[in-house]
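Fold it.
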Amino acid sequence: MIHIFINALSASAGGGLTYVRNVLPRLASRDGVRTTLLVGGVLRNEIPESTRIKILQEEHPVDSARRFWYEQRRLPQIIRHSEADVLLSTGNFALLRSPVPQILLSRNALYTSADFFRDMRERGDYRLWIDTEIKGALARWSVRVADYTVAPSATFASELQQWTGKEVVSIHHGFDREVFFQDQTPLRPDVQTQLAATDGTFRVLFVSHYNYYRNFETLIRATAILKERLRPRAVRLLLTCKLVSKDNPGTYQADKAAELVRQLRLTDEVVEFGALPYAALHNLYRSCNVYATPAYAETFAHPLVEAMASGLPVIASDLPVHREICGDAALYFPRFAQEILAQRIMQVSDSGEQCAAMREMGISRSRYFSWDKHVEQLLLLAQRMAGK
């Protein structure tokens, strides 16, 4: 029997929620494994307790720096009381005085991204720059003090090793095809109405809340190029966010992106759905012609796997991590080159043969990623640490 304590206080959006939602049921299904999960408010009501899962909820500061200091003071006591064997820290920051061996999950590429720091300076977002510098120092320290650090890709593991001088383990994040496609809940009525209005257009999809490192502006500029070159066929860029700062997590300012849409006269071409329930997301993927991501920093990128599994041709910025995830199933472009991005999308729109080949390669590639495989490797690591 092994008892794993998961600190998921930081899981409030994006990859953190995806990780806990997929890993926890698989831990619960394993004989000889008990799990104590520490969560904030987002996950508490959707995860049932059982004989193998105990849920703890703590009120904690939302701000990352204050949450870090809160955890350093409060968590050791909670972990001792739980009598766990191993701590799994999911939020990039480690516990200094962990009473049990500790696995740190590190999945934030911003701390090592020169592009992100340049981007913040050019936008004049100095508050975020300082905040990232502070959190980056804590993240580097965390990798050094944790017993093991696990990265979701070999590319990011290598970056962390160069950054910290400490060995980092790579365990790919997974994908569950059956779970992803099983829910028959339709898209919201307002989304269905918006989607119906795009019938007959060439639909380009990008799944992300708004932030700087996903490089929305390059995709918006590429859409303006496509608008001219695809005539008379109309093009639509479908976004699962609103280009409104207050409607997105974090402190990212979306005003410039929204202004760029207006300047390029793309108010009809850019369709902003806002955040969508994960269970219904497969309906949107399958309604589109191509998936495109211009991100300049990533550690894994779940939407790429979801898009490939949905049979969507993928166009991705030429990052080592994107090539690691997609292999030959995608077309690539320099991350800030909107002209080449538009050309790659045109390749897909012009060639039914290439489009069909990419669909087949993408579906095949998506099957490589498995949450069961991820949990199996994670448990092997945890058992080895508990044995020590």
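Residues 126-145 form the longest helix (20 residues).
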